[in-house]
Amino acid sequence: MREQTGVIVGVRVTHEDATVDQLEAAAADSQRHAVESLLSRRFIEEAFVLQTCNRTESYVVAPDHETGLSALSPVVADVPEDVVLEMDHEESLRHLLRVGAGLESIVLGEDQILGQLRDAYEDARGVGGIGTLLEDGVTKAMRVGERARNETAINEGVVSLASAAVRLVNRECALAGETALVVGAGEMGQLAARALAERVDRVLVANRTVPHAEHVAETIDVDASAVALNAVEAAVESARIVVSATGSNDHVFDADTFAESGETYVVDIAQPRDVSADAAEVPGVSVYDLDALESVTEETRAQRKRAAEEVEEIVDEEFDRLLAQYKRKRADRVISAMYESAEQVKAAELNRAMASEEFDEAQRDVMESMADAIVSQLLAAPTRSLRDAAEDDDWSTIQTALELFDPDFGPDSNDPPAFVEDMAVEDIPEGMREEIPASVLDQLADD
């Protein structure tokens, strides 16, 4: 895994500030492609993208905050500035922990976000987006989520958008004796089918891949059958309730789909939306989207308020641990360089001493052990001091130590840093030029 450098910078567009249309505009066609796009930008070392039905969040590791924001700006170019939240290093980390804990979800404490985080992590790792910084941050967010659900009651009651959707429809009409259609056989579709199975008499499951729909139909305890996605219009005519949760980039339903359906309640929990806006204009058809679920989830939010306070304490505790972990790792480079320098001096002096006299193997072992002990004792105090300096954000001490012990750091280095190789001087951000020796800048200018 790549050495830890730079800072994390993030931007997010979420259900708290953005409309469904704006969430759609911010979403990429896939998390993997979004990560690949971010990694192609200059200075970006790591990238992570999380897209769900109610949020699009992008994170990068860059040499500094402004460079990170510049790389992220195209991600949110199609949405208004007032719905975009920018996050610095610590804000990004704390927010990731809150997301994993379920504190940022529409349904407070919902469980699905943990699976979505894992999927996003695997997507980013699969294209080389996860390095040391994001590895620690994202995996910590998943562990915090597990702690929150194991140690508190944050996920009791309505636990998913799918169950909230069913509760919403149940307010509008009696579900007993009805037929429901679930479109999409992914995790959200499965949850919707299970929630509906407790209230209706029959469930139809439609999916592009029919065997997946058949699997969902077989796992629910109600009369259920699978249909192909291209037969969904006929299925709509026999269903009074429709819950749609596909991963399609295009609309699955338009107004014509419901022309002969009669009274129908449609809940669209997909992102991007499965149901076109004009479907709501068809007489007898009621369409509900993510915004409409807010009223249902407010009840659960009130029930879970006390648990949320406990989860906030877990987030605070784990956030402090994470920052301390990052700081220790930033000190480790200096400590490693210090020990390497000492080892070089020790080895050279031992070789010189042993070359001048005849020593047997036992005597050599004694001399080597003595030299190791001297090095360890001499460096024990500086090691503690450097770790304390990192904990206290005393980076001037860290930098001084780097200049003393790391031959590749500081004004005596004649080699360009790895992140500026093959670059023109004018491409280097102003804030970074001050940290690069003049000789290196001259070398880049000559090239």
TrEMBL record:
Pathway: Porphyrin-containing compound metabolism; protoporphyrin-IX biosynthesis; 5-aminolevulinate from L-glutamyl-tRNA(Glu): step 1/2. It holds the Pfam family Shikimate_DH. Residues 290-317 form a coiled coil. It catalyses: (S)-4-amino-5-oxopentanoate + tRNA(Glu) + NADP(+) = L-glutamyl-tRNA(Glu) + NADPH + H(+). Residues 11-152 form the Glutamyl-tRNA reductase N-terminal domain. GO terms for biological process: protoporphyrinogen IX biosynthetic process from glutamate. GO terms for molecular function: glutamyl-tRNA reductase activity; NADP binding. Residues 174-296 form the Quinate/shikimate 5-dehydrogenase/glutamyl-tRNA reductase domain. Catalyzes the NADPH-dependent reduction of glutamyl-tRNA(Glu) to glutamate 1-semialdehyde (GSA). Belongs to the glutamyl-tRNA reductase family. PANTHER family: GLUTAMYL-TRNA REDUCTASE (PTHR43013). This is Glutamyl-tRNA reductase.
